[in-house]
Design brief:
By secondary structure, the protein is mainly beta. The protein is built from two helices and 23 strands. A hairpin with a 5-residue loop joins strand 1 and strand 2.
């Protein structure tokens, strides 16, 4: 026969052992070469219905995952004689028939598969289906592998032996029991100065979701590492503002997977910036509403930060007193000490610290 007339269909019930989760039996409708000459493709090809929306009450959806209809049609016959449907009415009649046909062939065969019914689907409601296309030898071993893979791997996330099966309550689908989950690894770890601070950045690749990330710091000359930050699993950088200026450190990233495994990066060294006291450029400048004025203090000191007009008169005091080493950041809204809006024009911000005076020009545009 021609290749299109050399098909046969079958329906196999395959029991799959899922270990602690019991045995699941699935129905596998398939096509195969009818006369055993190999045809264009050997083996059995079909679909495994793995999952769909269910309703335990059976009102809005079936109460379990099951195939409702499997009807085989012929590409060479009329519809009333078992041929292919030719319009939506005929297709609907087949889909809703609830028939599970016996194997057929040889012939030029097609099949219609349906699940349901879903009589109470609300507007906008989603019905999800999970179906595997399986090609398998005659022992149907790949059907079992598809079911096992969808059942996946189970993990204990809540550390409560009373939840789940054998204490494992979290399921990750699409892993075979023999699969080794790819480890999480760090990619592109970098550390270096970031203004007056130290920034550590990293990328992450792998199969596992992350619970948390620790940033560890140790003296580069030797000594015990300590955790300077614990971050959420989606973090990809950390700015260390507590590093001593001029000190050299070794940083390590430790990532913790939700399944209990942890991985560490190699230690990377850098020297914390040893910046002098710096008066950063305000931003935005020029400005209409508010500008941010910032400075880096090399050490704890008595600080005065004020704004003067073009005639040298002080119009606003922003900082007056002792400030710790590090960044000092203030906002100025363009008003004087009495809260009055100052007119457009040139002003000067003056920073006095440790016997040193630094200034910068500010421009208000109303």
């Amino acid at each position: 026969p021609n290749y299109w007339g050399d098909d046969a269909t079958g329906l196999e019930r395959v029991a799959v052992n899922l270990g602690a989760h019991g045995t699941r039996t699935v129905t596998f409708p398939y096509w195969k070469d009818a006369d055993g000459d190999g045809g264009a493709a050997t083996g059995h090809c079909g679909f495994v219905l793995l999952d769909h929306t269910v309703d335990p009450t059976g009102v809005s959806a079936p109460d379990s995952v099951a195939l409702r209809t499997w009807v085989v049609t012929s590409g060479t016959g009329a519809y009333e004689d078992g041929g292919d449907p030719t319009n939506d009415f005929e297709r609907y009649a087949l889909l809703s028939s609830g028939e599970i046909e016996s194997p057929a062939g040889p012939g030029d065969l097609r099949a219609v598969m349906a699940v349901g019914p879903f009589p109470a689907v609300a507007p906008g409601q989603t019905i999800a289906f999970t179906v595997a296309l399986v090609v398998t030898p005659g022992d149907f071993s790949n059907v079992a592998r598809a079911v096992e893979a969808y059942d996946g791997r189970w993990f204990d996330l809540d550390h409560n032996p009373a939840t789940g099966v054998d204490g494992k309550e979290h399921r990750e689908p699409w892993y075979l029991p023999t699969d080794v989950m790819a480890p999480v690894w760090l990619a592109g770890v970098a550390v270096g100065p970031y203004g007056a601070d130290v920034r550590v950045r990293w990328g992450i690749a792998g199969d596992q979701a992350l619970q948390s990330i620790d940033v560890l710091r140790a003296p580069a000359a030797g000594g015990e590492a300590s955790v300077v930050a614990t971050l959420p699993g989606n973090a990809r950088e950390y700015v260390d503002k507590s590093a001593t200026p001029g000190a050299r450190y070794a940083y390590t990233i430790m990532i913790h997977g939700v399944y209990g495994a942890s991985y560490a990066s190699p230690a990377l060294e850098t020297t914390a910036p040893n910046l002098p006291t710096t008066f950063w450029q305000s931003y935005p400048n020029p400005f209409r509403g508010t500008t941010t004025i910032s400075a880096y203090l090399r050490e704890r000191a008595n600080v005065s930060l004020a704004v003067f007009d073009a005639a040298g008169r002080r119009v606003r005091s922003l900082v007056s007193g002792v400030r710790d080493e590090g960044d000092t950041v203030v906002s100025w809204d363009g008003t004087d000490d009495a809260g009055r809006r100052l007119p457009s024009g040139v002003y000067f911000a003056k920073l006095e610290v440790g016997g040193q005076t630094l200034s910068q020009k500010l421009l208000i545009m109303r």
